[in-house]
Amino acid sequence: MVGGGLTGLFAAWEASRVPGIQVVLLEKDLRLGGKVQTFAFPDGSHLEMGPDSFLLRNPLFLEALQSLGLTSSLMEPRSLSPFIRFRGRFHRLPQGLSGIAPVDRRYLKSSLLSLRGKAAVTRDFSIPPRKMPPDHDESLFSLAARHFGEEWAERVVSPLYGGIYAGDARELSAAFLQPQWLKDEEDQGSLIRAAKRRMKRGKGPSPFRTLPGGLETLVQRVEEDLRYRKVEIRKGEAVLRLAFHGGKVRLMTGRGDLQGEGVVLALPAPDAAALLEDLDPDLSKLLRKEVWVKSGALLLRVAKADKRAAWEAHPLWQGSGFLVPLGEGAIITGATVFSRKWPGLSSEAFHLRLFVGRRHEEEALELGDEALFRKAWEELQAWAGPLPPPDEVMVSRFARAFPQYRVGHGRWVQAVRLKEKAYPWLVLAGTSYEGVAIPDAVGQGREAGRRGASYLTGRPQPPSTS
């Protein structure tokens, strides 16, 4: 297993449950977990350096949580809406949304939309059901604009999905990221009618959860389980070359060579491409076509009582945070008020995460930590007014933060899988392909481990439970 992020960890976790299979996990960094990293403070509070929650919707992920004994104490976030910065002002996200569809008239009260923009939302009701070709795809922006108008696409959809994927909604694939919306259009025409129909079946609690000790608890628990199952974990060991001769996979690392019968490359597609260049230049070239973006966060902690009171009382921090559309800012792309979203995790201090870097706006990440904070702090004060400086600042950076599932991503994945079939001993896995969230990474890892085990044993391996 090459790559010690969540996908690689759970690929090893799945394969190690099959009797007779010996697993070696290699990770170039000195820690496991990839972007999942929790910073704990002496007072018991903590901040997430990467993602801060997960969805309870992937059955393979839920089974893994149960097997690792992590389902009994899950925490639910406070349900708060963000602000959207537009034309120099902060506006509340329109209320009453299901996905991107406004299912009631509360959006009419929003200051984010003009009268013309609000009127354009009703065009959704005039769109008839239509049958689309199997390979139909379009951008999230295009789909939203057709149904709700350009303003809705620009001021609601673009900042929401630009925040989730650090991308450009004019490029992101609707067919891959939100296939339900295209199906709704085929079945109902109107996305609002389809959303209301689903709501009649009942609305459950928020599907978002986190772990009381931080998301790195998941990494620690699976690492413990892997060591118990005698998986060899080699941190700080990068794979430099890959070859296949005489039915054996050979990995060349900075510490020597390894030989096995199969390999899972749980890496970003461009990194996998570098290892496969000699084996299959065409596959390598195809993998290099995927675009990733840099991203990072400034983690601000305010613990002193007088400062903390000033921060907590500020109107801008009364929601879950804010989103900044492309072109609206110079440095900051969004913010999460961690203390309001997860009050039980930061009760002793005020915690804020400022995000920097995304598609078409990655230049800020070339700055050093001090310069990056200085510029972001100047921008934040220009927006929010004078604030007392934070007591602590931490910087989190990811050179490969988010893969960009652009229009046509599904066809790219199909082409990769077709070429991959020529090498039954090889499994390509990770968020490059079929989902960027934590449950996606875990589910893809388990599937990759099962595929690798099936090849080695010569028989299909169902997903295992313990």
CATH class of the largest domain: Alpha Beta
Q: Tell me the strand order in the biggest sheet.
A: 6-5-16-17-18-15-19
CATH architectural group of the largest domain: 3-Layer(bba) Sandwich
Number of DSSP helical runs: 17
Task: Write down the Rg.
Answer: 23 Å
Give the terminus-to-terminus CA distance: 21 Å
Low-confidence stretches: none
What characterizes the major β-sheet?
A: 7 strands, mixed
Helical residues, percent: 25-40%
CATH superfamily of the largest domain: FAD/NAD(P)-binding domain
Assembly state (oligomeric): single chain
What is the fold's blueprint, element by element?
Elements (H helix, E strand, L loop, with lengths): L5 H10 L8 E4 L10 E3 L5 E3 L5 E2 L3 H9 L15 E4 L2 E4 L4 E2 L2 E2 L12 H6 L19 H9 L1 H16 L8 H4 L1 H9 L3 H10 L7 E2 L6 H13 L3 E4 L3 E7 L2 E6 L2 E5 L2 E4 L2 H8 L4 H8 L3 E11 L2 H9 L7 E3 L8 E5 L1 H4 L8 E7 L12 H16 L7 E12 L5 H12 L5 E4 L1 H4 L3 H20 L9
Parallel strand pairs: 1-10, 5-16, 14-20
Antiparallel strand pairs: 2-3, 4-9, 5-6, 7-8, 11-12, 12-13, 15-18, 15-19, 16-17, 17-18
